[in-house]
Design a protein that fits this description.
By secondary structure, the chain is α+β, with helices and mostly antiparallel strands. The chain has a domain at 266-402. It contains 18 helices and 19 strands. The protein has helices at residues 9-64, 66-70, 81-84, 133-139, 144-150, 158-168, 181-184, 212-216, 271-279, 281-293, 301-304, 333-345, 389-402, 422-426, 433-442, 451-454, 458-461, 467-472, and strands at 87-88, 99-108, 118-122, 125-126, 131-132, 244-245, 250-251, 261-262, 296-298, 328-330, 363-366, 379-383, 403-404, 410-411, 415-416, 477-478, 483-492, 499-506, 513-519. The strands form 6 sheets. Strands 1, 2, 3, 4, 17, 18 and 19 form a 7-stranded antiparallel sheet that branches. α5 (144-150) packs across α6 and α10 crosses α12.
């Protein structure tokens, strides 16, 4: 039987099919490998974002908990490498050396210029160290205080300062060099002036002549140094964002978070007892005498001049008035207490209004003469306990921490003089270069958490600022903060995706709130990461 020959193209067709299927399988495998790599990368990116968010919440918990803030952080959350650097996330060690986070801040040395002035440190930054635009316009609706403060900032002009005030004030009246809706409505893309508080600092870019460089400087990736692509021929600058903020909060509460004693109360049932408990008998008695009779007067110039010493940084002794041709003799706290008891026994209420706590430092109580006293009987006066430097150092912090003359529990946030840079200090009403220098020189010796520190009383007791000077800036300065800016970087121990986030938080007496949040990952890692 003859076998029939078959054509050979079948083998070729089979080979072609095998090759095509092999290529398809390879392409599929390669695509799956790529998809797997993308999935892994996406998963790791998500994990790094989780690590950055964990760092944010870790920092929030630290600054909101007094035990951690005053204990592990020693009251200094601004530079604490062992607490904020390279913190591992438990249970994540199986991938790329485990997830970690570090908390960075740009520290201002206060000296030098450009990159020599700033450096990256591990910690958070104090948002209350900046001038709060919204607070300044609220405290002085005329805008003059805000204008004068702005004019102390580098690269500020009269035209921009007036334009900023016009942008946030509550009217459409144009300041001498300012700009209101009439100007902005004439632009190619018109808009209205805000005429109200700012929601973010970025809004200032709408203000005439404000540029991104003036507001944020040339540190575009916010790491405190000039990286490739950021060099523009200028020194490193953080712009006005280093000195201005719109975020802040302050409560009229003492160091423990309790409402302060109102020195101008409407009810007096426990007023005397509360003062005695908080301030001690001598100060409480002097206050009560003032509130009951108002029979006080300014300490004579020769004595008042010694209240603060001859120069910033020193304190002087106060001499009680001695018998003289004026027929004035010093009295005792016991005599003052006796007069207070007499007035209270007659049913008199302590209704005299106190307009400033600092006024108490320069007053003396004038005791009434007895009805049968001879015509030439001397006048008896008792100096305020605050006139004695030793007693002032003890009593003033208590007064500022535990008492108030305000009626609102939430007050316009003030500047923290313990952390503010020199530019911000000099922008405060009543501040001089000499006092600013003394503040910068002395605040490294402060005790965190002490009322002298947290109230700013050390400006008088250590720096030697006169009561009248401190009084002029009383509503603009404090010694503590409720708001922090946190920059958290999440990463892996042996390389991989890096995420970076930034937030401003309000500690809110242990119940924190995030006031601002931004993902900075698109700006790059920015910092040299510890591994």
């Amino acid at each position: 039987m003859t076998r029939r020959k078959r054509p050979g193209y079948t083998i070729i067709a089979v080979l072609i099919v095998v090759v095509v299927l092999s290529l398809a399988a390879y392409r599929f495998a390669d695509s799956m490998t790529s998809e797997y790599a993308v999935a892994v990368r996406s998963s790791e990116s998500a994990e790094s974002r989780t690590a950055a968010a964990s760092g944010l919440h870790y920092s929030i918990a630290a600054v909101c908990d007094p035990a951690t803030l005053d204990g592990q952080l020693s009251g200094n959350p601004y530079d604490k490498e062992q607490f904020f650097a390279n913190q591992p996330l438990a249970g994540t060690q199986q991938s790329r050396g485990g997830l970690r986070f570090s908390i960075f801040t740009i520290a201002d040395s206060g000296s030098g210029a450009g990159e020599s002035r700033y450096s990256a440190k591990y910690g958070v930054s104090d948002e209350a160290a900046k001038l709060n635009v919204n607070s300044l316009i609220k405290l002085d609706p005329t805008g003059n205080v805000l204008h004068d403060a702005l004019m102390k900032l580098p690269n500020m002009t009269e035209e921009i300062a007036d334009a900023i005030v016009d942008w946030v004030d509550g009217n459409d009246t144009i300041r001498p060099a300012g700009a209101e809706t009439a100007y902005y409505s004439g632009l190619p893309q018109p808009y209205l002036a805000k005429n109200g508080p700012l929601n973010s600092l970025d809004e200032l870019l709408f203000v005439r002549d404000v540029t991104p460089f003036l507001l944020f400087g040339n540190d575009r990736n916010r790491n405190g140094k000039l990286d490739p692509g950021e060099e523009d021929g200028n020194d490193l600058s953080l712009g006005w964002s280093a000195y201005l903020t719109v975020y802040g909060r302050e409560l009229d509460a003492d160091g423990a978070g309790n409402a302060r004693i109102n020195l101008n109360p409407t009810a007096f049932d426990t007023f005397a007892a509360d003062l005695d408990t908080a301030l001690g008998t001598e100060m409480a008695t002097f206050l009560m005498y003032y509130k009951l009779s108002g029979a006080t007067a300014a300490i004579p110039t020769g004595i008042s001049a010694n209240l603060s010493g001859a120069s910033p940084g020193t304190t002087g002794a106060v001499k009680a008035p001695a018998a003289s041709a004026t027929k004035t003799v010093p009295g005792t706290p016991a005599q003052l207490a006796a007069e207070v008891e007499v007035m209270l026994g007659k049913g008199k209420a302590p209704t005299k209004k106190l307009t400033s706590i600092f006024a108490l430092a320069t007053l003396q109580a004038t005791l009434p003469k007895a009805a049968n006293a001879p015509a030439d009987a001397p006048t008896v006066v008792v100096l305020s306990p605050l006139s004695d430097p030793a007693k002032r150092a003890e009593l003033l912090p208590k007064l500022l921490d535990m008492t108030t003359i305000r009626t609102e529990f939430e007050i316009p946030p003030r500047v923290n003089v313990n952390t503010a840079p020199s530019e911000v200090l000099l922008a405060l009403p009543g501040m001089t270069q000499a006092y600013a220098d003394a503040i910068l020189a002395n605040r490294g010796n402060l005790t965190p958490g002490d009322p002298t520190t947290t109230t700013g009383a050390w400006l008088m007791t250590t720096v030697g600022m006169p009561p009248e000077t401190f009084r002029s800036m009383e509503k603009y300065v404090t010694g503590r903060t409720m708001t922090y800016r946190i920059q958290s970087v999440g990463y892996f121990g042996t390389g991989g995706p890096v995420s970076r986030v930034e937030a401003v938080i309000d500690t809110n007496q242990g119940h924190p709130r995030i006031l601002y949040f931004r993902d900075l990952t698109d700006l790059g890692r920015g910092f040299d990461l510890p591994r």
